[in-house]
Design brief:
The chain is α+β, with helices and mostly antiparallel strands. The protein contains five helices and four strands. It has one domain: Roll (Nuclear Transport Factor 2, Chain: A), CATH 3.10.450. 47% of the residues lie in helices and 29% in strands.
Length: 131
Amino acid sequence: MKKIIIFAACIAFALTSCTPAEKKIEESVDGFLSAYLSMDFDKASGYCTANVADAIKPALDTTGLNGTIASKIKELARTTTYEIVSIDTESEEDTAIVKYNVISESPAFVFEKSMTLKKCDGEWKIAALSM
């Protein structure tokens, strides 16, 4: 009986574990979101296609804001986290749809978001964001 339970647990783990593609996608998403929430444009843009990199640049640029507003934005970014909810690699070849939650502690909120990644030259790049 004990062997059956261990075998069933191994099968369940194998069926729920990530594929190699999903791991690479998750690495790209983690890298991008960590850099984005740290307001590190150069690092975040490295995970994106050129079009998305150009689109996010204004969102991470606080140089034109007064000091108080810029510091509030940076503080909010520091207290914001994320969690990846799902990765869909089945719908379209060389494309992944990632659903994730953006979570803030103060003020408390959770936003459900998604992004599309495309495989470009063997790397998974963020090609579209729901903002």
